[in-house]
Amino acid sequence: MILPTFKGSTLRGGFGYAFKRVVCAIKNKECPDCLLKEKCIYSYVFETPPPSDTKIMRKYIAAPHPFILEPPPEKRRGYKTGDEISFGLILIGKAIDYLPYFVYAFDELGRIGIGKGRAKYELKTVKCENNPVIPAKAGIQTIYESETKTLNPFVYSTLNLESDILLPQATCRGGNPESHDHETLTLHFLTPTRIHYDKHLTIDLEFHILIRNLLRRLSLLYYFHCEGDPSGWDFKGIIDKAKDIKVIKRDLKWYDWERYSARQDTRMKMGGFVGEITFEGDIEPFMHLIKAGEILHVGKGTSFGLGKYEIK
Fold first, then answer.
1. Residue 305: inside a domain, yes or no?
2. Are residues 15 and 98 both part of a single domain?
3. Pick from 193, 219, 39, 214: which is nearest to 47 by CA?
4. Which of 18, 19, 16, 47 has the alpha carbon at shortest distance from 31?
5. Residue 19 contacts residue 42 (beta carbons within 8 Å)
6. Mean predicted lDDT score pLDDT of the chain
7. In this structure, is residue 246 part of a structural domain?
8. 1 part of a folded domain
9. Average pLDDT for residues 91-116, to the nearest whole number?
């Protein structure tokens, strides 16, 4: 099996093909023209059209996807018979109900084959890792094994964005900024990160730009996939407070990456920045938000595994 250095595109592209083959009822029709688009699992997962009665994003043709594929970090390209590859899958909100379809699609993709030469593989195990944001609920359960080809019952922890992650009223209003000790926060961006600010991709990341992107992404995921209402979030207050946080060290570099889109029959530039950046200021009020982004990624192309970072 020959795979590219960054395997996110291969995994997502192959998975999308297998997923449509497994669940699509009208295979010769494009999703926007399909009568079933608002009730179709494939359309929800891959096209993610905003509902016709949506209160936000009315001008957009698609909402953020409810899944993230995290390709293996290894850069090796060649695999031989008997080798194993592990990758991560994050499902958000209602998408957890469709886990059996994801498992079946990846199993089917193994029979179809991936990479150069369409090498075949067997889906060996699927394990569920409970939310690492809540250490007390952490744990790993094996929920699928190739020997039985059955999905075992499992328990997963839940995260409420308003109580566990985002506390805009309590953390970002009032108070004397001089009364807080200044802290430092270093983030390591592991996969290309595509962050837009002022209608352009940026590598000159500032803390408030990161927070703007996190707020937008989390609020949309909350609204479209978790049946939440982010209208009460204090976006302006949070962003204004984020402007007080300064960059004290920036070691980011651009990583050029292209993917081929079979659907559009074109190569698409998907580059972004990688590396480390260190911020200084009153960081603590933003840490739950930063930790949510550590799981849910930030920026564009997250379903390919882009925008993954870790707190150092």
1. yes
2. yes
3. 39
4. 47
5. yes
6. 85
7. yes
8. no
9. 92
What does the pLDDT look like over 110-122, one tens digit per residue? 999 998 889 999 9
Helix 207-225 to helix 235-242 angle (10° resolution) is: 160
Structural domain boundaries enclosing 101: 8-123
Of 123, 148, 180, the one marking the end of a domain is 123
Residues paired with 140 in a beta bridge: 129
Residues 24, 113 share a domain? yes
Q: What are the angstrom distances between the C-alpha of 116 and each of 17, 20, 120, 309?
A: 16, 21, 11, 29
Contacts of 176 (CB under 8 A, 6+ apart): none
CATH label of the domain that carries residue 255: 3.30.70.1900
* Alpha carbons 53 and 33: distance in angstroms, whole number: 18
Instruction: Write phi, then psi, for 127 (nearest 5 degrees).
Output: -120, 145
Classify the phi-psi angles of 239: left when phi > 0, otherwise alpha if psi is within -120 to 50, otherwise beta: alpha
Q: How confident is the model at residue 157 (pLDDT cuts 50, 70, 90)?
A: low
Looking at residue 176, its pLDDT comes to 46
Q: Which of 17, 169, 42, 1 is nearest to 9 (CA)?
A: 17
**Same domain (yes/no): 302, 173:** yes
DSSP 3-state of 140: strand
Q: Domain check: are 202 and 285 in the same one?
A: yes
What does pTM read for this prediction?
0.86
Contact (CB, 8 A) for 287 and 133: no
